[in-house]
Amino acid sequence: MVGADNMTSLVKGPKEAYLVLAEKGRLMVQESSLKFFGQCVMAGCYIGFGAHLAVVISGAMPGITDENPGLKKLIFAYLFPVNLVLITLTGGVLYTGTAVATPAAFFERKASLVDVLRCLVLSWVGNLLGSLVFAGFILWCDLLDDRSQASFLSIAEKKTSARFDVTFARGIGCNWMVSMAVLLSGQAQDMFGKVVAIYLPISTFVMLGFEHTPANFYLLGLTVEAGDMSVIDILLKNLLPTTLGNLVAGAMVVAGSYSYFFGNLGNTTISEAKEPFRRLQAKRSMGIESVIEDPENQPADDDPKRYSSRLSSSSTCAPSISSRISFMPEGEERPDCRQSQLCAIGLAA
């Protein structure tokens, strides 16, 4: 908030966050398959960092966690979201995020079904490859001691013991929360806000015991590489139903419902004037830099390009036009947004 007569919100509304998410999905399907796949592989590695951290630390406190399983879950859930913060804020791509962003783009008529399916396959395979590579790296580093290996095996046995439909339902619950983390982090416009927005839903799904496909790539993949489980067991008893559940949650529960509430499926009127800002926010989250215009050649005050160019400038700290709420007395001159100390950061996925 800046001044009594000029209030500025650093939180986007849900409609704007959803529309930027759909624009991000459009950028995903337009990205080259090789570059998109590389982002997915890197995200799979980051999943390994957070998952291994959570398992090793939560399993290394037998004196206080053996008789207190709730505390063990709490410790695991506190540490695990580190990977989602790394991925979301550095332009990585997860299968779970792709399962909500690209269907959103499809519902908003920004992507074809073929491109959506291509991105889903690439993200699934890329996350799997990255997770397995990192699992091999951990074994190479000799960072899997007997206690940690027992913890991984216990987790794997639990994840492969439920019925197909139960695991499928848990997959829905998981990506429901992950998709909320994506939307909430898109609403927040500063680093702290984004981290909190990611942590709350992610720690929720972890503590409740829902199933996350990319996380299971690492948690189960490491047990396979260590020789404790078979590929068929983890594929049929966990990865297949979890993958389907994550897709249903992202594409239907979140993207479908929010398109009905705020987008094309509900025939909602969408402001075309704000489209440049949505594109800019989506590009920033994908690591795509926009052209910075010469400050001496800025468009007129009522031209959206003015704000677009300012948001793309590294010297600009004004919030996006979609998040500005002004209460200006009539006739009073608009303050120069370049003097604001508030910084806008785009939607991360």
UniProtKB/TrEMBL annotation:
It holds the Pfam family Form_Nir_trans. It is found in: Cell membrane. Residues 309-321 have a biased composition (Low complexity). The keyword Membrane applies. InterPro entries: Aquaporin-like, For/NO2_transpt. Homopentamer. This is FdhC protein.
